[in-house]
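pasting input
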Amino acid sequence: EKYRYWETREVKTTCAYCGVGCQMKLLVKENKVVEILPDKGAANEGLLCVKGRFAHDFIGHPDRLTTPLIRRNGTLEPASWEEALNLVTEKIQTIRQEHGADAIAGFSSARVTNEENYLMNKLMRGAIGTNNIDHCARLCHASTVAGLATTLGSGAMTNPMADVKNAEVIFITGSNTTEAHPVMGAYVRQARKAGSKLIVADPREIELAEEADLFLKIRPGSSVALSNAMIHVILQEKLENKTFIEEHTEDVDQLIAAVAECTPEWAETVTGVPAETIRQAARMYADSHASSIIYSMGITQHVNGTENVMSLSNLALVTGNLGKPGAGVNPLRGQNNVQGACDMGALPNVMPAYQPVNSPETIARFKEAWGVALPQSPGLTVTQAIPAAAEGSVKMLYVMGENPMISDPDTHHVKEGLEKAFLVVQDIFLTETGQLADVVLPAAVFAEKEGTFTNTERRVQRVRQAVMAPGEARPDWWILMQLLNRLGLESSYKGPKDIFEEIRRVAPSYAGISYDRIEEEGLCWPCPAESHGGTPILHVGKIARGAGLFKPVQWQPSPELGQEAYPDIMTTGRILYHFHTRTMTAKSPGIEAIAPENYVEIHPEMASAKGIQEGDLVAIASPRGEIRVKARITDRVDAQVVFVPFHWSEGANVLTNGEVLDPYCKIPGFKVTGVNVEKTGDL
Ligand code: SF4
């Protein structure tokens, strides 16, 4: 877009892509964002990645939804807001009357603001009367929330991102940091250049593996074995932090017993990493003043994801790497506001600020705030609600800003659930999920509304309106407020600021944060009072739980392994250029030119055994279905493992297993799928 600088105005806001939460300036000419420039903020220190800087064509894209749609005689047709909202209200009322409130489930969104997540929570729980509210954190960091809340008392990143530059040793496991969280990746590189040591454990030779002091190419699904063996070495060589263990932890005896047999030699047979390398990694991690653990989906997206997380927590606790600069257990949250969506109670078992739905104090606090009685038994997760819709007990799904047709496991089964229920989709484009809807509600993008996002380091930052939404599209908070009013929970918020003021009153960790205080720079929760400066580092002086809990965990092989008909292992992940289900990035011609289509990475050994050459069409099958993608031959992956990015439709999630879930938090095992890979000639 051509423009002269003097024709534009600048609007400072927060990036709507990943959880880093970069600060940026939108240059606006008339009603169009013509360019995005970096701005200085504590999270990004003036940096932006390719997505934040260039992938903004989606904002005023001609394909945006500009009017509500209602399905009539099988076709989605334009409708007025009045018609669409009345129809949704009537459906809610009828289904609730006939089948009870629990026959309705709502998916909130990691893409929208805190204020909007809060209202979705109020709609589902306060106005409809069910705890069936969840969002895509179920598919990414539900295991973090469950694991770290149990062991440390807080299920969030312990240290700010830029603090990694204070680490003497950085241990990155299951995070392709430079591609999925590019600015965080830049901090790791800066730390590395300044002398920090780097250990990388990953099934793929990711970019940072090339710069690592130690690279451990582990087999998918073997992380618990690696952590336990590292702890075994630490204890055997007396590298543990005895004072920290004594003063700040409990149940160390259980940990000692659990890792007694986990020798590096045993771990070598499970992980594929030489025992001596495991020893070196353990020594390097333990023998430092401050070691930081950074992890992401490679740890969490497993059927034992929660135990993976607990095993990393054990590693940090046994070496005293918590509550100080350069240390910590640092889950990198994927989406711009996935942290905030969790904080706002878009989870079936907790209200805003993680207050359990069944605690008498929570019930009393929200009864006073909202004036209604609340449901008290935990609701369905995303991974339970969609199968329940397929089987018929959930009759209505309200999906705000999510695209389960691509993001959820076992696409064919997902489709069955979405088709069977009465489906309401609130989004910015007619996504693969929207195409199946009965009612579509057109929403505004981040640049068209006010509010806040909370980034991966718990920093609450402002989102500001730069342009008007196209046509009849409206901010999600406005849409939700109309429904609250129609369902009898009268709400007259003038804007997101009013909603945030209500959040402060009911969410103790946000109580001290106000729009005025975060005008220039965000604040990290917990921030209990206006006089409090926020908490960039958790667990300083005292673990939030009181004492850090050692949770003994044991490695179990993934149930996906060892199937005769599906002997290869598929792992999934992200690439730098696309974001999640491509709803936004696919609208940028520049991005599409670089990354236009799906592919599979195959090791040269597997390729030659199966007669596959670069660019050949490959059929990948699992018990759930089959996909066809082009081969890229590379030794980044192991000989038994193939990698498929999950961004494209008819892609990786056609194959993944949605039935076997982590017992603690119900996350699926996206990272290990038994498949059969074959060369094929046809599309
Ligand atoms: Fe946006 Fe994340 Fe890139 Fe920053 S690192 S510009 S938040 S996508």
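fyi The pocket of iron/sulfur cluster is lined by residues 15, 17-18, 20-22, 44, 48-49, 51-52, 181-183 (CB under 6 Å).
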